[in-house]
Predict the 3D structure of the following.
Amino acid sequence: MTAKENPFGQVLVALVTPFTPDGEVDWPGVEKHMDDVINQGADGIVVTGTTGETSTLTDPEKVKLVEVGKSVAAGRAKIITGGGSNETAHAMKLYRDSEKAGADGVMIVTPYYNKPTQSGILTHFRLIADATDLPVILYDIPGRTGVPIAFETIVRAAKHPNIVAIKDAKGDFGQVSRVLNETSLLYFSGDDANVLPHLSIGAVGLVGVTANVAATPYRQIVDCINAGNIVEATAAHKALEPLVRALMTHVPGTVAAKYVLHGLGRISSPRVRLPLVGPEDFEAAQIEDDLDRIGLIPGLDLSNFRPDRNAAAGGALPKVAGTTR
């Protein structure tokens, strides 16, 4: 089938949401971090996703992140709002508000905790896609939501004119190939360790956690694949492996990314919101050990890395009133 035009970009950063030490959103820090990743080669930013701590952000914070993203990007990158809700009506309102705030697209995660049937999942996706004129990315991550999006559900959802893409964090490469063969959906890799394999079988881009720290090599990988240069793409993939391991295997990616970004002086605090907490000493040591194995990565200078385990310890409650969680 004919592939749809890509309205999202190819190197999408699953953006962390910088917080102050007491757990409020660090808005100047958000602006700086957005500008940093765009300058490093990102052409898309997903705000309020898993990595952005969507489950502990308030609705006003989510909408403001879109507004700030649009202002900072100034046409240099697309701003996609992620997250959603396991209540369909709530998700519809969030995405309508995000559209009004200027979002370029929405990423809808499978409803979590409820464990709906495939019929319920499909209805959820269709109603949200009806609620906005924005292009939609479906987000398949059963390890967090408890239910996968079945192949048949993906095919049926793909018939909706606003549903144009899927982010895959399931690791079923056979299904990826089948969906690419039988639909016109754009595929985005949602697993940092599998970005190159996904791209090699037809994915159009990535939504990456590790790109918070090093977006430039992902830009290099995508550009090399676009040019048919698998050798250089593979070299960049191999160079990234220890960094991906550092950020994705010891603690939640959000926690590790903030720990490293703070150690590099790129965000002012490594704070996360409870029930997430910073790495314990043994986890921080594992992250640092993996960082020691990293060679040359474009755009990443680890000689300036100064970890602060005390600053990362514990979590913080948001002080913003009116939380919907």
